[in-house]
Amino acid sequence: MEIDVLGPLGARVNGLSIVPTAGKPRQILALLAIRAGRVVSVETLIEEVWGDAVPRSAAPTLQTYILQLRKKITDALPVDSELTAKDILATSYGGYQLAPVEPIRCDLVEFQRLTAHGTRAMAEHAPHVASEKLREGLALWRGNALVDVPLGEVLRMEVIGMQEARTRALELRIEADLQLGRHAELIGELRMLVAQQPLHENLCAQLMTALYRAGHPWRALEVFQTLRQSLVDELGVEPSPRLQRLHRAILANDDRLDRFTLAQRLLSA
């Protein structure tokens, strides 16, 4: 079984799609797919689909949606398959479980594996490995997670967590590339990211560091001033102490900023 959630929803059995066209069954399949191999309770599925406006018919309607999904699985299975739709979408412990026995390939699981590998490599001072693994993980994304699925509260929280993991992996990959001396080639990417998220201090700090190391300290100072003005205008706050420390180091033309270790300490202290 193949499951894709890092972009449009995809779920295939024997190479054939089992994704329904209707919104509510897509929600159910998406939640089961994200938690493949784990039981999702009936209560959680009902909360996802109907929120606070649960109709009296919610339980039987949910069962109907499950039957529809099982029908699509049955149609996708080979004629001589030893598995049934109930094996792949099982009823278990007051809920339902996708792929309890069927081996699965899931882009989310692979992303988590690769980012964990990259994170360990950074901790072990192996930026080449970290950059490679994090790039591989980020390349699995095909847009926003579950971009074609209506999101209830449960899926919305899942997607927020997935997007946060994506952002963290991106920041860590950029840190690895900074360690590898790729500051000049990072500037364009970082300018685009900062334009998209102008109040994101980590990205601004990375852009400041890249610009300084590329020989453009005045441009790095401009990034700080733009961020400061945005924070004051929109939130009424100053940049964090860690970013102000980086700003002061650039003003002082501290040549230790050419080494990653000092920039890292300034931003983590």
UniProtKB/TrEMBL annotation:
Highest taxon of source: Bacteria
Keyword vocabulary terms for this entry: DNA-binding, Transcription, Transcription regulation, Two-component regulatory system
DNA-binding region: 1-100
Pfam families: BTAD, Trans_reg_C
Domain OmpR/PhoB-type: residue ranges: 1-100
Keyword Acyltransferase: no
SUPFAM superfamilies: C-terminal effector domain of the bipartite response regulators, TPR-like
Protein family according to the UniProt entry: Belongs to the AfsR/DnrI/RedD regulatory family.
Listed name of the protein: BTAD domain-containing putative transcriptional regulator
Originating organism: Streptomyces eurythermus
Lineage, uppermost ranks: Bacteria, Bacillati, Actinomycetota, Actinomycetes, Kitasatosporales
